[in-house]
Amino acid sequence: MWDIALSYLLIKFFMGYSFKTFLKHTAKDFYNQSVNPPVVRASTILFKSLNDIRKTQKKHLKDPTGGHFDYGRQGTSTTHALSKILTKLEESYHVFLTPTGFGSVFLAMFSVARPGDEIIISDPVYSPTRILTQDFFKDFNIKAVFYNPRDLSTLKNNITKKTKLIFVENPGSNTFEFQDRSKLHQLDL
Fold first, then answer.
1. Residues 44, 100: Cα–Cα separation, whole Å
2. pLDDT band with cut points at 50, 70 and 90 for residue 1
3. CATH number for the domain formed by residue range(s) 101-186
4. CA–CA separation, 184 vs 124, rounded Å?
């Protein structure tokens, strides 16, 4: 079967020029007068004073191109350029970049789940994700239900009208259990 989402013609139609051209020209950095944006690596950002931080943040609101150096890998000109590229590539309004994988998990879950919702999570999930879903989400009236990845009926039987998210981690953290993704896709959900 032909996948319309990966169609070269579709990408070319929506982007106005070829995908290869897009990748070659999208990262030009006229702020730093560079063909590609420089890689800015940082873990601790230093400011002379609180007033200096505020000036930098105000400057970023006017022109985010140079980055605003918020914390670690966030706010650099590199992350700003990457965010712009991904926004164009994904044809989205905005892209959120997180400095960690767990930050991405949190952002994804919290952007979907609302008070009164339920989420279903594979049992051998990363420990911080378990703490987030079974403890932290409880304060927001979001219920977490865990399923056994070796018995997919435990997944199917726990789906209700309140289920807003099924979180599959493959392989499972620490146990490295692999779930058969083809069987997950075959479930009549």
1. 15
2. very low
3. 3.40.640.10
4. 16
